[in-house]
Amino acid sequence: MRIGSFGSALPRLRAPVKAPAPGILHLQVVHKRTAQMQGFTSSRGVASLNTQVGFGSTGAFVQLIQQKLAALHFYIPQSGVYDEKTGLAIDAYHRLLRHGTSQSLDGLTVSELLAGRGSFPIRYPGDGRHAEGNLGLQLLALIDHGKVEAIYPISSGKPSTPTILGRFHVYMRTPNYLPDGMYYSDFFTGGYAIHGFDPAPDYPASHGCMRLPITDAISVWNWLSIGDGVDVYY
After folding, report:
1. Per-residue pLDDT at 40
2. pTM of this structure
């Protein structure tokens, strides 16, 4: 906080403040007049948020986290509740930053998220409207002419049945469930597809497809169309 000036210098006062509870914290700084500086009183209100949140939590901090995730293009309906989709978006953010896999917030994650750090590294910005499956990050991004629209966590092929690499196009789309449990499937070559499945764990586990959590599948289905590109790489 600025407390006065001597010529062009602007001394600042820094002091830790602990809020007793979430809400508006009213701060007042008073400086008595001295021979070097006039006296003054300064007041302001500062929002204090409860950062101890987890599944089921609500409130201003959860809303802020959801807004920051959405601003970085992670798929997250902003419900105001720390729900399944919030956990999945947080997990995807951890993957993007190469911080492992976790649906929980920690201090480092919150700091980087509030600072707006991290962006999906588009491999093929000239491919128009397309999806990119980055298997190294275990993320799927929907991209429209070089602009990321949405990012999702995926589970690609396990070592014994790896996901095919290359540049393809959606050639067949199947809504609802298939007999093997595939949900809202976009096939891009042979039997390989982007689809929902339960489970879609936070590691490669599929038979070669790019699995999405069931709760994310319809969102991807609604975005993709026949002919859209699908680029798969490490």
Report:
1. 66
2. 0.82
